[in-house]
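Before the break, one more example. Copy the sequence into your notebook; we will annotate it together after we see the structure.
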Amino acid sequence: MLLTLTLMGALFFPALSVASESFRILSQNMYRLFDDIDDGKGEKVVSEKKFRHRVDTAAGKITGQFRLPDIIALQEVENLNVLDRISKKIFSISGIKYYSIIREGNDISGINIGYLMHPKFEINTIRQLFKHDLLPYDQTPLFSRPPLYLRACFESSCLSLLNLHLRSMRGLRSASRNKRVSLKRLAQATAIARWIDDFQRSRPKESLLVLGDFNALTPTDSFVDMAGTIRGDPDNSKTSLAAKDWIEEDLIDLTRNIPQRRRYSYIYRKKKQILDYMLVNARFKPQLRNIAFSRIDYKFSDHAALIAEFSW
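Here is what the structure looks like once it is written out:
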């Protein structure tokens, strides 16, 4: 597969073009961003002061350091109220009113997946995937945070996005939990890979971007290669569970264009890891101009932001 990539450096963040055909996409895990309203669902409720501070911080990051991306894919946000509050704060700073898009999933703690979309984009499809699918092992929901598919158009150009927040690695080394966690991670990656292959077969000219918090390592962990399965090139040489290659035309990992020393989005026990990705298909029409991870700001999130600039 071939994809034309134009990389203009990976320092965070370089001066960005303001040409009309240029657009930027941000993916950010928001580290359990709850509001101050009790919805009666057993979710965490924070003080009004703390919620306001987190909203102000998020809006400040988006308008300042992140320079008002056109598409913002978020993970670990509670509900529409959270996104609307961030959107209103951004509007008060910049005069730009982002659309808020979120769908409630199955996470018992109440965190979900959403988007903030610049008004220049027209949204023609929003669909939550696999919400009612079950894990065969114990008949519990396959996805706590079901993937959120969105198709957005700007003038005559359209882009399909799939925002992910997959099962974490917590419990993999537990004797009592390892089997379930491993099987769930494999089943999630398999479901997504099969969806990607079906998407590419049924929409052979459509640009697809898969992004978000995969909770998956590259190189893989020793249990299951989730990132490889979703790309279409699973490495089973050192894993306890073997993943099938479901994707005829593999996806391309744009994060590989980031210099190795800056290619991480999370730090676990002082070890730098990549958990967050942007993958595109070979039919992806926009050209990559820049991609970078931010530095992790623990006052904001425990994950780095991943931001990319493209031109049509």
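The chain has one domain: 22-303. Residues 22-303 form a domain with the Deoxyribonuclease I; Chain A fold (CATH 3.60.10.10). Try to locate both features in your own notes.
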